[in-house]
Write a structure and sequence with these properties.
14 strands, 14 helices, 435 residues, 36% helix, 8-stranded mixed beta sheet, disordered N terminus
Length: 435
């Protein structure tokens, strides 16, 4: 998450949005130049946006960086486009997907957004970026909706043109804190020393407080570090201060969580037993497998997620798309929370376009349908989704957060399985967050 942005109280009028877009297109075309092509791709056969029966969208995520990488998200978006076009498109319209490497920095995020404006995409769908300040102003000025972001930034839950499909980090950490309040002694959070990381402690603490637990220790760490020996030992020292109540260590470092756990595995033998816990996105089944499965450091760990466990039958349609259009593409893992979010985001987008029938499909009509009370179903992977600007969590700065449900999973015999049936709604817990 980034630093807090001012919440806009109303959606820009459509006429003004179109005028601003026209200006943005002119400016973007002059400023972008050849540099915009770097890091961006397109599904073969793309023909552009308006003027024909083609619908153009974009998906971006960081790839080949020293921190968090989500290559499966744009790769799956391309696979989804191949699948939907083989099925006849949406209402007979072909869908083309542009992709862009966000590179985990604000400058590249801005380049991706300007490319989206230049190409007149109707929406940015199923994407990941920690740098909302680099892309959201550009999308807002052009009136382009941001559907199904990963939920890593506060701005995704405040922007009137953001339509999140999950509760992001706020819901995951609040839900995890509430669970740990009942099972742990001292809790220590290991999180990135970044603006996004600064938002994590109060969210975890909201869940701990709701369960009558003391606040977590807040331990910053360099996101791109190659070793976390010092952080590991400090966390273990705090977690073992009370022999009668073994503590919990909560690494939330994205892709670097595995690096932390390597250091943790080596150091924990020198200390009494403690439990680990984290959030989906910092660990998934592939991370558990790579760390040694049942004999690895994640065994027994609680993990909060937005969706059902990867083995749930409700993921069968996603897996069929991967099998048909991306078999052998090792960037795409059906158990990855980013891929799952992209699938749900495109499920939303498909229903939006279907709701428009034979009418024009552009960024205004897409956001207009979403703002007009359209209710979207996702095969029970989420509750029915409907976006209203002033929603239940507006009072605590999350007016666009419409799905505060989380699931609780646990690593058992090397497999991530459901620890509790169904979803838990953490709306009330988030209302008590000290943000």
């Amino acid at each position: 998450m980034t630093g807090r942005r001012q919440t806009r109280s109303t959606v820009l009028p459509r006429l003004l949005t179109r005028r601003v877009r026209a200006a943005a297109l002119t400016t973007g075309a002059l400023a972008a130049g050849a540099s915009l092509a770097a890091g961006c791709g397109v599904v073969p056969g793309a023909t552009g946006g308006s003027g024909d029966d083609t619908i153009t969208v974009m998906t971006w995520a960081p790839q080949d960086t020293d921190a968090t990488n989500k290559p499966g998200m744009p790769a799956f978006a391309e696979a989804w486009a191949r699948w939907i076009n083989a099925e006849g498109g949406i209402n007979g319209r072909r869908v083309d997907v542009l992709t862009c490497n966000e590179r985990n920095d604000s400058v590249s995020a801005g380049r991706c957004a300007r490319r989206a404006v230049e190409e007149e995409v109707v929406a940015v769908v199923g994407s990941y970026s920690q740098h909302a300040e680099g892309f959201l102003p550009t999308l807002e000025a052009a009136g382009i909706p941001y559907i199904g972001g990963y939920g890593i930034t506060t701005a995704e839950f405040t922007s009137p043109l953001s339509y999140p499909v999950n509760g992001g980090q706020p819901a995951l950490l609040a839900g995890l804190g509430r669970t740990l309040a009942d099972t742990c002694g001292p809790v220590t959070l290991i999180r990135p020393d970044t603006l996004a990381g600064d938002q994590l402690p109060p969210l975890l603490d909201s869940g701990l407080k709701a369960g009558g637990h003391a606040l977590a220790g807040d331990q910053r760490a360099v996101e791109s570090a190659t070793s976390y020996e010092a952080q590991t030992r400090r966390a273990l020292e705090r977690a073992t201060t009370d022999p009668a109540e073994p503590g919990c260590v909560v690494p939330a470092l994205g892709d670097r969580t595995g690096t932390f756990m390597d250091s943790f595995r080596r150091a924990r033998a020198d200390y009494p037993g403690v439990r680990t816990a984290t959030v989906l996105g910092s660990v998934d089944q592939s991370a558990v497998d790579a760390s040694g499965g049942a004999s690895g450091p994640y065994e027994g760990s609680y993990v909060t997620g937005w969706y059902p466990a990867a083995g749930d039958a409700r993921w069968a349609p996603l897996k069929k798309v991967i099998e048909k259009e991306a078999f052998g593409d090792n960037r795409i893992d059906a158990a990855d929370a980013g891929v799952q979010t992209t699938w749900i985001a495109y499920t939303v987008f498909r229903q939006v376009v279907e709701s428009l029938g034979d009418g024009e499909v552009n960024s205004d009509t897409v956001s207009g349908a979403l703002d007009g009370g359209l209710k979207v179903t996702t095969g029970d992977l989420t509750p029915t989704l409907e976006w209203k600007f002033q929603d239940e969590l507006a009072a605590v700065g999350y007016p666009r957060l419409v799905n505060a449900n989380v699931t609780l999973q646990v690593v058992e015999k090397g497999r991530l399985v459901a620890a509790r049936e169904g979803f838990t709604d953490v709306t009330e817990t988030l209302r008590g967050a000290d943000l």
